[in-house]
Amino acid sequence: MTLRMTCETSPVTTTATPSVNDSVFLRACRGESVPHVPVWFMRQAGRSLPEYRKLREGVPMLESCFRPDMVIEFTMQPVRRHVVDAAILFSDIVVPLKAIGVDLDIVAGTGPVVAEPIRSADQLAQLRDIEPDDVIPIVESVKVVVDELGTTPLIGFAGAPFTLASYLIEGGPSKDHRLTKQFMYTNPDLWHALLARLAAIAGQFLRVQIEAGASAVQLFDSWAGNLSLADYDKYVKPHSAAVLSSVADLGVPRIHFGVGTGELLQSMGDAGADVVGVDWRVPLEEAAKRVGGGKALQGNLDSTALFAPTEVLNAKAAEVIESGRAAPGHIFNLGHGVLPATDPDALTRLVDFVHNYELASS
Ligand code: CP3
Predict the structure, then answer these.
(1) CB of 67 closer than 6 A to ligand 1?
(2) Active site residue 43
(3) What is the pLDDT of residues 332-362, one digit of tens each?
(4) Which of 1, 82, 214, 302 lies in the 20 to 30 Å Cα band around 74?
(5) To the nearest 5 percent, what fractions of the chain are helix, strand and coil?
(6) Residue 299 within a domain
């Protein structure tokens, strides 16, 4: 444990204006000392919030992602309600694909559904580069959100090439990713060409968000945990590495996350992440050993713990915080997203608990 956890009483008197760069979230991403563990939640915007459900009524999910009024409001809602340490842009991993004209939709209760799944080389042509005109509403939304957030950082995000490819090949969500892996094993050249296209698009989408003001980015490889380490390293890692290195010049922390990735953690870190997101299955102390390299960790309370009695929830949150001390920096989060049935008040109380933890126990 380094001197990361200082018990600051009152800040030294200074005339310097606080800046987003000094925020607790960004300090933890960089492994610097923090007054408390920062916390935000994957899927903090969305169906757990009544104010979200009310405003989304009658508006298709993907349409809402291209309407700045909605993107701005939905991004801000969890920040206002829970006082989390970072906002994440309200969007979806398929938004950049929609923006370049891929025929797809997000179906309620199912997820992304692609009209013509990718099966051949000529279908790759539709995966063109993002042009500035494609993402005008996203850029506008980011700029307004960043302004409204003040010193609270905004996290931009993109889907990683493997997770995007899985939707494009399967045509929708899949449990076993059978068609995706069949494609990967049968047509390795076409597979690499597809992932290289998706890496370019994901990198461009992250760049757009950072240039508009996002202070960190997260690359979601949600389904990479379905791969063996050997297959991950051979078929996926080079492309995720290309995405992460394509924004290295912009100097913002890059978080790399997937579900069920216990065996892939070191490799996902090596792909060029500054922070590795960990799901609920691996204790952070163990994850820190696997990841190494001075990288910060993000995670990893089981999302279902929010349905437990408060004492149980708090005890589990305390375990996550204690375990996170093994890492050079720790950002508290869930091990995956907020479940739609979660009581939003339980999330607010959890934020309070995390923020007060160090002060109360030292
Ligand atoms: O975290 C946030 O608050 C930002 C919003 C966000 C959404 N999607 C909004 C959304 C983020 C970060 C995503 C990323 C995303 N989308 C991922 C990676 C993160 C993860 O969960 O692993 C993936 C795999 C997707 C694809 C996707 N989009 C799925 C699986 C679903 C859920 C389908 C369902 O209805 O259960 C979506 C839809 C979606 N994306 C919703 C939201 C708020 C729900 C749509 C609604 O409210 O009707």
Answers:
(1) no
(2) yes
(3) 999 999 999 999 999 999 999 999 997 545 4
(4) 302
(5) 50, 10, 35
(6) yes
Identify whether the C-beta of residue 220 lies closer than 8 Å to the C-beta of residue 258.
yes
Strands 154-159 and 87-88: parallel
339 lines ligand 1 (CB under 6 A): no
Question: What range defines the domain where residue 137 resides?
Answer: 21-361
Residue 80's CB: how many other CB atoms inside 10 A?
12
User: Quick check: is 16 in a domain?
Assistant: no
| Position 210 in a domain | yes
CATH number at residue 90: 3.20.20.210
Hey, whose CA ends up nearest to atom 36 of ligand 1? 109
Mean residue pLDDT of the chain comes to: 94
Q: Is 257 exposed, middle or buried (0-12, 13-18, 19+ CB in 10 A)?
A: buried
Quote the number of domains for the chain. 1
The answer to whether residue 8 is domain-embedded is no
Q: In the β-sheet with 254-257, what is the strand arrangement from edge to edge?
A: 87-88, 154-159, 216-220, 254-257, 275-277, 296-301, 330-334
**pTM beyond 0.85, yes or no:** yes
